TrEMBL record:
Family, similarity comment: Belongs to the zinc-containing alcohol dehydrogenase family.
Cofactor: Zn(2+)
Alcohol dehydrogenase-like N-terminal domain span: 28-149
Keyword Zinc: yes
Keyword terms of this UniProt record: Metal-binding, NAD, Oxidoreductase, Zinc
Highest classification ranks of the organism: Bacteria, Bacillati, Actinomycetota, Actinomycetes, Pseudonocardiales
Domain Alcohol dehydrogenase-like C-terminal: 190-324
SUPFAM superfamilies xref list: GroES-like, NAD(P)-binding Rossmann-fold domains
InterPro entries: ADH-like_C, ADH-like_N, ADH_Zn_CS, GroES-like_sf, MycoS_dep_FDH, NAD(P)-bd_dom_sf
UniProt-listed PROSITE patterns: ADH_ZINC
Gene3D superfamilies associated with the record: Medium-chain alcohol dehydrogenases, catalytic domain, NAD(P)-binding Rossmann-like Domain
Top-rank taxon: Bacteria
Species the sequence originates in: Amycolatopsis minnesotensis
Protein name: S-(Hydroxymethyl)mycothiol dehydrogenase
C-alpha cells in the first residue's frame, strides 16, 4: 500500500526547501522500498536547489543514505526485507559496452526506479540522483541497494553513497595511489578530506592538504595529511612552488583537484611530477574554460583523469570500505559534523555554504 511521508522538496530555483507530504508507491518489478535511517546533506543537493543540475523542478532532495529494505518488487532475488543497505546512484546494467568490457563503473545505462514518487496532488517529483532520500521511505531500483555490515551506524555508512566515496575513489581507484606515493589534494572539504583518507589508506608517504582555510587544513590532518599548505593570497606559481618544495622539488606523484576551477586545475597540472597524475573530482560549471600552452601537455607526459563517483563499483567498494571502518582503519565517523532533524536541511545548506561543516546528516 502506498505510504505518505514528509519529504524535503525544492520547488523552484534558489528558493528555500519545504517539508511536504510525499506519496511513495509500492515497488514495481525490479524495485525496492527502503526505510531511510540517515541521509547526508551533500553539496549536490544544494546544486539541485540552485538549478545547477537541471530545471526539472520540483525535486525530492537527498541521496547519501543508508537504511533497511522494507519491500521488494517482482523479480528481485538478491534483496529481501530487513537487509541493511547503502543507496547508490550507479546501479549498473551489466549489458552496455562499458559493462561488457569489464568496466561497469563507466556504465552508460544505469537504473533508477520506473515508478515516480509524487506530491499529494499527483505532481511527479524528480528524485535527486535518482534516489530522493530526505524522507522516511523511498523507492529505488533494487540495483541501487548495496548490502553492507549492519554494525556500521547509518549516519556514517550512508556517506559512502556520494561525496565520501567520490573522494576515496578519486585517490584509490582513479588516481591509483599506492605505497610511498606523494599526493597533494587541493580543496579540503568533504570530498577532499575523503581523498586524503583514501591516500592514507593506500599507504601514500607524503600527503599535502591544500586549502585557503586553516580550519579545513586542521580537519585534513585528522584524515591523514602529513603537510598542509594555506594558499590564501598566493599566486598559482607560488602554490606550485610550495607543492614542489614539499616533494623534493619534483612535484607530487598524484594531485587531486577537489575544487574544480581552472586555477586549481592548473595548480594540479603544474604541481605534479613530470610523469604524475592529475585527478579532477571537483565539479566545474559549464562556463569554465582553460587556456594553456599545448606544448605543456606534450612535454610533461603523465595522466590527466576525471573521476566520476570515484570510479566506484558499489557492490565491490561499499562493503569493503564499511569493513575497513569497522576495523578502525578508515575514519568515516570523522566526516559527520552534526546530526540534524529533517526540518534542518535548509539551515544545513547555509552552514555548508560558510564551510562550517564537513557533513550534516539527517537522522530519522
Amino acid at each position: 500500500m502506498p505510504a505518505e511521508v514528509q519529504g524535503v522538496i525544492a520547488r523552484a530555483k534558489g528558493e528555500p526547501v519545504s517539508l511536504e507530504t510525499v506519496i511513495v508507491p509500492d515497488p514495481g518489478p525490479g524495485e525496492a522500498v527502503v526505510s531511510v535511517r540517515a541521509c547526508g546533506v551533500c553539496h549536490t543537493d544544494l546544486h539541485y536547489r540552485e538549478g545547477g543540475i537541471n530545471d526539472e523542478f520540483p525535486f525530492l532532495l537527498g541521496h547519501e543514505a543508508a537504511g533497511y529494505v522494507e519491500q521488494v518488487g517482482e523479480g528481485v532475488t538478491d534483496l529481501e526485507p530487513g537487509d541493511y543497505v547503502i543507496l547508490n546512484w550507479r546501479a549498473v546494467c551489466g549489458t552496455c559496452r562499458a559493462c561488457k568490457r569489464g568496466k561497469p563503473w563507466y556504465c552508460f545505462s544505469t537504473f533508477n526506479a520506473a515508478k515516480p514518487m509524487t506530491l499529494t496532488d499527483g505532481t511527479e517529483l524528480s528524485a535527486a540522483l535518482g534516489i530522493g532520500a530526505f524522507l522516511e521511505r523511498t523507492l529505488v531500483h533494487s540495483g541501487q541497494c548495496t548490502k553492507v555490515n549492519k554494525e556500521a551506524e547509518p549516519a556514517v555508512a550512508g556517506l559512502l553513497g556520494c561525496g565520501v566515496m567520490a573522494g576515496l575513489g578519486a585517490a584509490i581507484n582513479t588516481g591509483a595511489v599506492t605505497r610511498g606515493d606523494s599526493v597533494a589534494v587541493i580543496g579540503c572539504g568533504g570530498v577532499g578530506d575523503a581523498a586524503i583518507a583514501g591516500a592514507a589508506l593506500a599507504g601514500a608517504g607524503t600527503i599535502i592538504a591544500v586549502d585557503t582555510d586553516d580550519r579545513k587544513l586542521t580537519w585534513a590532518k585528522e584524515f591523514g595529511a602529513t603537510a598542509t599548505l594555506n594558499t590564501k593570497g598566493k599566486s598559482e606559481e607560488e602554490v606550485v612552488e610550495a607543492i614542489q618544495d614539499l616533494t623534493n622539488s619534483f612535484g607530487a606523484d598524484v594531485v587531486i583537484d577537489a575544487v574544480g576551477r581552472p586555477e586549481t586545475w592548473r595548480q594540479a597540472f603544474y604541481g605534479r611530477d613530470l610523469a604524475g597524475t592529475v585527478v579532477l573530482v571537483g565539479v566545474p560549471t559549464p562556463d569554465m574554460r582553460l587556456d594553456m600552452p599545448l606544448i605543456d601537455f606534450f612535454a610533461r607526459g603523465g595522466s590527466l583523469k576525471s573521476s566520476w563517483y570515484g570510479d566506484c563499483l558499489p557492490s565491490r567498494d561499499f562493503p569493503m570500505l564499511v569493513d575497513l571502518y569497522l576495523q578502525g582503519r578508515l575514519p568515516l565517523d570523522k566526516f559527520v559534523t552534526e546530526r540534524i532533524a529533517l526540518d534542518g536541511v535548509e539551515q544545513a545548506f547555509e552552514r555548508m555554504h560558510h564551510g562550517d561543516v564537513l557533513r550534516s546528516v539527517v537522522v530519522f
